[in-house]
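Batch job 17 of 40 flagged for manual review because the log was empty.
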Amino acid sequence: MKRNILIHPDPRLKKLCAAVPDISDDLRVLAADMLETMYAAPGIGLAAPQVGVLERMIVLDCVKEDGAKPEPLVMVNPRVIAASEETNVYDEGCLSIPDQYAEVTRPADVRIEWLDLDGTLQERDMDGLWATCVQHEIDHLDGKLFIDYLKPLKRQMITRKMQKLKREMARA
């Protein structure tokens, strides 16, 4: 089931999310809903707080080429266990901050550890867009948005645009 994506500013997007205590059928339903919501948006990543669930779970799929086989990943309690000194700059966007983009600098390579939906501990090295996306989504679990990396004036400008968008959506 497609879920509504929270739009910034929303206090739930700034909250620290709780660790998922155990893998349940409800969590598997949430994961399926989040993937459906992400693909429909369309996006390459989505964190549980973006659909109003304050738990540490993210979904991502950075395969963007037409006709390429999707590679959906569901990560429960993900964490960065290693990051490169080398950095990359990407023009990031966010489904909770529609149509706004800004350059963000992050580690170019990361090693991530997480639980899959069977409760098995997984580990994977990521680079390129995958590394940027997974760090962006893990930030959501810590109440951090990509605009928090920007200078105050640019962040305020984007926030005002989102407040205006939310007013227009409320009238529609």
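Reviewer: the log was empty due to a logging misconfiguration, but the result itself is present. The mean pLDDT is 96. Unflagging and moving on to job 18.
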